[in-house]
Amino acid sequence: MLADSAAAQRIIELREQVYLANMALQTHNLVTFTWGNVSGIDRELGLVAIKPSGVEYAKLSPANMVILNLAGKVIEGDLKPSSDTSTHLVLYRSYEDIGGVVHTHSPFACAWAQAGLSIPALGTTHADYFYGDIPCTRALTEAEVATNYELNTGLVIEETLGSTEPLSMPGIVVKEHGPFTWGTSPDNAVHNAVVLEEVAKMALHTKQLNPQVTSLNQALLDKHYLRKHGKDAYYGQED
Ligand SMILES: [Zn+2]
């Protein structure tokens, strides 16, 4: 237990944020049964909250979110954390700017993952959030599946992103599996999961209508991405 009451209060807030973000997956129709998980991190405390493994959404509560440190040691909670926890932890350890991670098996994103294809940036909806094609990882090797599978899933995401700034490409599809997204907070990571599923659906329909279509031109990609996210961003209201 944490002696410090300020830390304890922060953990309560983190539990609440992560609980609400998990419930939002259901609201946005991104999950079937229990297939999906959201985590969030308090960087100051170095603690992560994540959904417990295999618990129905109706039975989730802030209290049953599992609290772990970045090494994966459970600090608070009686339930087992999500089976994908090691993947989330790799991303938090590697990308210091991210505050939330989401994994779902949302069907359109999974279709691209199962086809082994990156989701091409075909229009401005995509360009508003993802600065280029959303990459698809390579398949994991037999050895990577046999030992430390979830950790290796995180490592293959990191390998695929390479030097890409993670918040400029806040999601990926893992080959033969499905999407992982991240963001500045658990809520922002859910937002990106919703957008990834929408652009996956649009891209599939676009390719069906016109199989020859190619990614939008760089100038339009820059215009849409940078007006929302660049240092000269001007979309939305001034603070
Ligand atoms: Zn999965």
UniProtKB/TrEMBL annotation:
This is L-ribulose-5-phosphate 4-epimerase. The keyword Metal-binding applies. SMART domains: Aldolase_II (SM01007). It is an enzyme of class 5 (isomerase). Its cofactor is Zn(2+). Residues 16-204 form the Class II aldolase/adducin N-terminal domain. Its EC number is 5.1.3.4. It catalyses: L-ribulose 5-phosphate = D-xylulose 5-phosphate. It comes from the Bacteria. Gene3D superfamilies: Class II aldolase/adducin N-terminal domain. Belongs to the aldolase class II family. AraD/FucA subfamily. NCBIfam families: PRK08193.1 (NF006047), PRK12348.1 (NF009003).
